[in-house]
Amino acid sequence: MRDLKTLKELVASVTDWKSLEKMSCKPFKPSILHLAISQDAPHLYSEEQLIQLKNFSKLLSRAESKPNTNKTDKRVAKKRQIEERPKEERIMPAMIKKPRKIILVQNGPSPDLSRRIVLGHSGTSSDLPRRIILEHSGPSPDLPVQFKNRVTELSGHDLKYLMHKRLFCSDVRPNNNRLSMPMNEIMCEFLTQDEIEKLDERDGSNGKGRLVGLEVTVLDPCLREFSLALKKWSMQRTDTYNLVTNWNRIVFINEFEEGHELQIWSFRVDNKLYLLLNKL
User: Is Transferase found in the keyword set (predicted)?
Assistant: First the structure.
C-alpha cells in the first residue's frame, strides 16, 4: 500500500473533478446480496447500513406484492376448467404450507440446547415476528471465583450464562463502536417484560426516531465498571442485541482483537441489569 505522503502527492496531482470522483470511495448501495448476508450476519454492517437494507427489503416486498395480470388470468382459467369437469373427476390441489426453517448458528462451545419459540403479542398470527430463545439443558460453564466474589460484593443475584462470543472484526472496529450479540445465540431469557418493551421504544413524538435503548452496567475482565446502552436491531430473520456507546473504551483498555473469545454473563443488583465479560 502507498504511504500517506505518496497518497497526498497522488491526490494533489488531480486537477479535474471527474478524475477525483473516480478516485473517491463508492457509497454503500443496498443489494439483494447484501440483504441475504445481513439476514444471518447483521454484525458485519453498521446501524446506518442495516436501516438502508431494511428499507430496501420493504421496497422489494412492495414490488413482489403487485398483482401479475397474466398469472391471475391463468389461475382463473384453470379454476373454470376444474369447475366445468364432472364432480367425480375434480381433483383439488392440496394446500401445503412449508414449515419455517430456522437455522441456529453457534460460534463457540455450548451446553445442550432446547429451543423455545415465542410468537408476537397475540401469539397466533404467523405474520408477527418470532422471538427465538435458547434454553440450555446442560450445566453452565464455571465462572472464575474472582467474578463470583465481585457479584457477591455487589449483592448481586440471578446470575445467568448468556453466550460464548468470538469477536469479529466488526466488534472491534472503532467506527462501529458496538458488540453484537445475536438473539439466536443467547442461551436463556435474561430480560424482564418491561425491558423487552423498552428495547422497542424510539425517541421523538411520532415514535420513528432512534432507538432509546436500555442502560446497563458492564464489568470487563478486570472487573472495571462501564455504563453502556443495550439496543436491539431487528432484521427480517434475525434480532440482535448490541452493546453501544462506550464499547470502544472497553475494547481499547482490554486490547480486544478479532478472534478473542468471551463468556458473557448477566446478573442483577436490585432491579438493575449488569453484564459480565470473562475473557477466555
Answer: no
